[in-house]
Amino acid sequence: MYSRRDFGKIALAGVPLVRMFGGVTIGVQTYSYRDFAHGVADDVDVIIGALKADDAGEIELFSPGIEPRGVNREALRRWRLSTPMDHFAAVRRKIEDAGVAIHSYTMNYSADFTDDEIDKTFDQAKALGTNIIASSTQVNIARRLLAFAEKHKTLLAFHGHSNTKDPNEFATPESFQAALGLSKYARVNLDIGHFSAAGYDPVAFIHEHHDRITHLHVKDRKNNDGRNVPWGQGDTPIKAVLLSLKEKKYPIPAFVEYEYPGTGTPVEEVKKCLDYMRRILA
Hints:
CATH superfamily: Divalent-metal-dependent TIM barrel enzymes
CATH topology: TIM Barrel
Number of strands: 9
């Protein structure tokens, strides 16, 4: 583990610093800082400041943090189609210069995405320096999206929620398994809080599919589709999951996704979550 002085030296050298504890990489899904977002001009600086305060070295980059806010759907589409890749390369450089690695890029696809728009998002991921796109999307467009993953040789990791009643939602083990069968580029971004709240065992799923899971979202929820709660107050087997990654040496990063109603700022709450994981993995 690095000291803060070591971290500063590495960051100044422009070398991303991955945080590992007990052989497990931990980091942050930058959606956790959504309440700090102010617009395309300064979101990256806000995110970097939060990551430095939390001593986080690896992230899943939430796309709205580097896109314009407060615009309608058509305006956002035009922006995606017209913005040069230099914009995304500059975002990458700024984040890496702060000593942070971009593990994956969030792009939540819906059926109203045009083919050109989807294609551009894969270019964006490559400009950001990652070959992993994580997406909360629908089952009925998975095959369409995976055609672009194959074209770009980029992994597409499907993220699930806990709505098991809608067959078009990724939630059940079967929905993920079906997507994995469609392409060698299909992967799972397993949200252990949602998966557990839906009534499934994330430890068992990880054991079975560890070679097709790009990363985890870690949160704590109550069972039976219950609410998000501060870590340690819910039913998600966070400790069992992390110790499984450690013991089995699965190379699967675990990222904080802060969603519960905390008493502190997002930076303070994310730090609590990171510290929670560090204690388990120590």
